[in-house]
Amino acid sequence: MPRALLALSIGAFGIGTTEFVVMGMLPQIADGLDVSVSAVGLLISAYAVGVVVGAPTLTALGVRFTPKQTLVALMAVFVVGNVLSALAPSYGTLVVARVITALAHGSFFGVGAVAARRLVPREKATQAISLMFAGLTVANVVGVPLGTFVAQQASWRLVPAGCAVIGLVTIAGLLAWMPALTGEATDLRSELRAFRRRQVWMVLGVTMIGFAALFAVYSYVAPILTELGGLPEAWVTPVLAVFGIGTTIGMLAGGRFGDRFGLRAVLASLVVSALLLAAFALTARTPVAAVVLLVLFGAVSFAAGPVVQNKVIEAARVRGGSLVSAANQGAFNVANALGAALGAAVLSAGQGYTAPIWVGAALALAGTVLCLVAVRTERADARTPDPVVADVDAWEGATACVTAR
Question: Residue 395's pLDDT band (boundaries 50, 70, 90)?
Fold first, then answer.
């Protein structure tokens, strides 16, 4: 695999650490800025707002530039945001800094996925995306625990400063290793034209509904493990670390299966997820079984991630594809909000902590139905000759050959 993928993965690691590490150092930030923990918790929401705003906006602005130029610029925004976070003299400044940092998130993954798949032959496109995205899952296993430890033992300001350094390393790697021919400048009109294709919306729907199953459960995993499984609170962090390892393995495995089976791999992932969640709900009070099923569920769920990312770019049938790729990152965030909201609704109704698990199983089944339709739509489109698609395929093949050299 090209070294440029390493630069993309390092960037994904830095972004993942920046996004999630705040959850582990809320008390330290609250003490340092003399505000309440609940106020600091709003930094998580501020980051989400930045992702939602930045993904389409910065991607649309970046279509006039090559993917390499856009990725370097996005990492520069990421570095500036983290430096401001590290130096923030007040809570308000930190909120602004977090939003600035988040602006690069969705667009980096969207544009990065387009660049990653063009670094390799077409039959390895999903593997390339999975290697990039693996940086995000590794962040939950290494970056977030390490950042939390540094915040507890030294200063929370060192954490965003360290993330800024990771951003600079990413920029250096992109400049040194990313070929200029990983894409060309396009125009906004052609990028928007991709949204006319029904298959794009089908894949986005699979992402929103299918991954909502994951977040319906993961959002409440701590009380599920402690209240239902009877695990001590001290065990939750190690279990989540193992969960993170499972998601990393699943992400990499999904890259291989996705290149071979395409959307059928996503279909299998959703069906198995529904079965695992049903078993999880029935055995949640048995600690060993609960942990094993949770880890397996994480691995199977994340295996679908690089597949849908690659498939939405393919479905766009345009030379760029960055905008639909970024839209899929927005779909992941919608899935996060939808899953968490539905889980909260059943908990508020007094259904108990098994209820979010059953909600997750139902969402996985709903995603299965959507994926079945998407598979059929893809087959129908494949039988329809399209000169635009033939031109895009020829161009991508030539790009991959030049890049490989």
Answer: very low
